[in-house]
Structures are given as structure tokens and as C-alpha cells.
Sequence to fold (247 residues):
Amino acid sequence: MAMRKFHTAQAVTPRSGLEPERQRDRALIGGSLELRRAHGQSTGVSGQFVLDPVFFPEHEDRLRAFCDPADPRPLVVEIGFQMGRFATDYCLLNPGTRFVGFEVRKSYCEEANARFEKFGVQNALLALVDAREMLPRVLQPGTLDALFVFFPDPWWKKRHMKKRMISPEFAADAARWLRPGGHLLLKTDVPDYATWAEAELRREPAFEVERLADPGAGLPPTLRERRCALRNQPTYAVIARRREDPK
Fold:
């Protein structure tokens, strides 16, 4: 991995006349919600904690109700929870917090659901959907306490850069979702990605951005962090705090 080239230039020159919304849709994993609902079908994912809001509107309604700002409990979102090991530990350590996890792989959703059931998690939901597509539909602005993006795919190829989670558009969305004083926390084991993402987040004026000296950020370790530790491979953490008074 260390030998692979990390691209920082623009991946694709926008086509003349291509609508901004279509440009955004090309970055989504699985495609836009409207296209998937019109032409796709449910994967059949199931579990006590798992929702399929793409194909079941009632699941989207349940997710929206769980995120209701009238609920006084803090609200935390993790994008890309994989098999849910961090999510399980975090939920058990923070039973008074509402936790919502997003993944785009059915097997990871079902693995995390089984882990939640095994360890008795009570304060979480999992959604099989690209978070960038669903969060604007279920979150009220200024209601999210923390947003975790741990070890996202670097999307190494230049033509795939548009799929990277961290982008100016995502930073602006995150700033809108987070309450003043809330934060976005990124972790990665790719040093160039950490540097690139930090620069992208600094472009958002609503954020105060810092590279953390403690890459664990005082949280339970993810599976990826455990594996990196075994290989003596460093990890990196960047935090973007929502300003109380955005400039």
C-alpha cells in the first residue's frame, strides 16, 4: 500500500453541461436513492438493528424518528462501521448516546447486528445505505454531536477520487449537521490521505481543524487500529470541530 501513488489533483474535469447533482450522484456507492428505488431491489438484509432505508420507506421513517432532535440523548454517527467492533464497544461504554452506523455492504451489516445482539447493545441502529445519500433526509441541521469516519477507502485511482468520503461538499454537509461544538473525527493509516483530508477540512470555514497527537483519540480501538498496532504501522487522526460562531 505504501508504494501506491496517492493522487491529489482533480480526478475528472467536469463535463460541459453536466448538472452538479449528477456529478454528486457519480460519487455515491451504489448510485442515487431515486435510481436504486426505481431499478433495484432489496438485498434481503435482516436483523434486529439493521435497516434497509433504500427499499423500505418505513425504515427511513424509523431512522428519522431515531434522530429526532426532541430526544435529549447525544446523537453520534459512524460512516463505514465494517463489522461493528468499534460500534459495539462505543455503545456499551456510552449507553446514554444514540448511535447510528452506515455501511454499504450487507455482510458487514449482518455481522455488526449479530455482535450487537451477542453483547446486548440497546442504543443503536444500522443502515445499509451510503450515508451521504441518507443523512440529509433524516438529520435536522445542528443536531449531530459527533461524526466518525474511520479508515475510509482512499480510492487510490485518479478516476475514483470523486468517491472519496472527505470532500468540500461533505465537509460543508458535516458542518451543517453538527451542533456548535460538535466534531467530525477522521482516522486513517494512509499518511497522504490524512494530509489531504486535513487540507480539505480546513477549507470549510465552519471548522477548526487539528491533527491529534493521540491517533486513538481516547476512543476504543477499531479492528484496523489493532491490526496496525500488531504491524507497528502508524495511524493518524484529524478532528474538525464545529465553530460556535462560524465565520
The chain has nine helices and eight strands. The longest strand covers residues 178-188. Residues 136 and 173 are 8 Å apart (CA to CA). The domain at 43-242 is CATH 3.40.50.150 (Rossmann fold).
